[in-house]
């Protein structure tokens, strides 16, 4: 029976080069990510074994590395590309990502996007 199990990461701070404007291409800015990843944790819990679940430390490392080695103008591009990376490299069925760019609009606490992506089911 399918589960509704979630492994999550909240408030992951990613330093990267991001922005539409010329001045933004010369600095590093912070993006802050919340992530919910659907998986099945029953095997891991039964055997008390990290191999059977999503390793949130390894996933955080992969996202930090991605942001160190890429630069895009839009946070949409970061979100889309990082969801694709997660679905390709980890046993995730469905991912919900919130990506914030705090400080982009000084009058707002934060701005950003929320997306959800699922692994393609092959026919
Ligand atoms: N939907 C978006 N709107 C805006 C973005 C973005 O990435 N997605 N980016 C900018 C600028 O880079 C802005 O953050 C500079 O303050 C504007 N709008």
From TrEMBL:
Cited SUPFAM superfamilies: Tetrahydrobiopterin biosynthesis enzymes-like
Keywords assigned: Folate biosynthesis, Isomerase, Lyase
Listed name of the protein: 7,8-dihydroneopterin aldolase
A Pfam family: FolB
Positions of the Dihydroneopterin aldolase/epimerase domain: 7-117
Catalytic activity entry: 7,8-dihydroneopterin = 6-hydroxymethyl-7,8-dihydropterin + glycolaldehyde; 7,8-dihydroneopterin = 7,8-dihydromonapterin
GO CC terms: cytoplasm
Keyword Ribonucleoprotein: no
Annotated PANTHER family: DIHYDRONEOPTERIN ALDOLASE 1-RELATED
Enzyme Commission number, as recorded: 4.1.2.25
């Amino acid at each position: 029976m399918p589960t509704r199990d979630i492994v999550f990461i909240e408030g992951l701070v990613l330093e990267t080069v991001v922005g539409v404007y010329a001045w933004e291409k010369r600095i590093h800015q912070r993006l802050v990510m919340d992530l919910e990843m659907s998986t099945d944790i029953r095997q891991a819990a039964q055997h008390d074994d990290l191999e059977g679940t999503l390793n949130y430390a390894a996933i955080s490392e992969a996202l930090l590395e991605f942001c160190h080695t890429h630069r895009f103008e839009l946070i949409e591009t970061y979100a889309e590309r990082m969801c694709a990376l997660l679905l390709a490299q980890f046993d995730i069925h469905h991912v919900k990502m919130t990506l914030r760019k705090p400080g982009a609009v000084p009058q707002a606490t934060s701005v950003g996007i929320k997306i959800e992506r699922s692994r393609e089911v092959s026919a």
